[in-house]
Amino acid sequence: MGILSGRLLRMLLVAACAALPAAGQRAQNRKFLVLLDPGHTPKMPGARSSQGLYEREYNQTIARLLMDRLGKDGDIDVNSTNGTEESVGLSQRVKMAATLKADLFLSLHHDSVQLSYLRPWTFNGAERKYCDDFKGFSIHAATVQDKPVAEKSYRFAQIAAKKMMQQGFPFTLHHEEKIEGEDMKLLDRSLGIYERNHLAVLWNNKSPAVLVECGIIVNRDEERRLQDPAVQGQIVEALYQAVREYKDK
Q1: Residue pair 201/93 in contact by the 8 Å Cβ criterion
Q2: With contact defined as beta carbons under 8 Å apart, do 60 and 105 qualify?
Q3: What is the pTM of this model?
Q4: Are 176 and 182 in contact (CB under 8 A)?
Q5: Cα 74 to Cα 84: distance, rounded to the nearest angstrom
Q6: Closest to 54 measured CA to CA, from 174, 231, 218
Q7: What DSSP string runs through the chain?
Q8: Contact 197, 185 (CB under 8 A)
Q9: How many CB atoms lie within 10 A of CB 137?
């Protein structure tokens, strides 16, 4: 288990392609492999929070905690697509999932809203942007993968949404609003699952792949909660339990 550097990732991709055993042998010997994908890179760190922090920081925190949680299970292997100082492109992440034959590709993000909803406020002496109108998680999956893979992706999305709700987290429906930048199709209105066919890490992925928006970091109250180690632990526990249930069924 571990976070791969860019150089090590390139070496892995080359070596793994040459060294993969036959499919039958691999199926018998391998553990269930989860590939965690903390969203964004140092050069493109994602949304800016109500406190001025970048989304990437939140994504890395959840990924690190979830990696530790999953890594304690002897029947699961877990790895990550990028580390804190690496800029790993989307195509590289998808290629890594294919090379490793990941059983699950889990992309971790934190959410924002459209610019028209953002309002100014002052935090620690600096002007920031916020929107307290929306809160909650959302789950995203593609429907244009190969049918068996898409079905597995959607099955994990359902499990993950239910586990998040069991931990007390609400989901957000603001992505379905018919405005520019949103207007996403809901695959399940009761679980907050959206269709996202244009995201490279989802539609172009040969592994079952789901993107989780853990919460909305431009919401001032929600951001404070997402900084709480106890709340982070609840998110991690929800996703951990989702992986376990998905694997064991």
Answers
A1: yes
A2: no
A3: 0.89
A4: yes
A5: 26
A6: 218
A7: -EEPPHHHHHHHHHHHHHHPPPHHHHHHHPPEEEEEEE---SSS---B-TTS-BHHHHHHHHHHHHHHHHHT-TTEEEEES--TT----HHHHHHHHHHHT-SEEEEEEEE---GGG-EEEEETTEEEEE--S---BEEEE-SSS-HHHHHHHHHHHHHHHHHHHHTT--B--GGGSSSTT--PPEEETTTTEEE--S-HHHHT-SS-EEEEEEEETTSHHHHHHHTSHHHHHHHHHHHHHHHHHHHH-
A8: no
A9: 25
- R_g (Cα) of the chain, nearest Å: 18
Mean pLDDT in consecutive groups of 10 residues from the start of the chain, 249 residues: 48 41 48 96 95 97 98 96 81 95 98 98 98 98 96 98 98 98 98 97 97 98 98 98 96
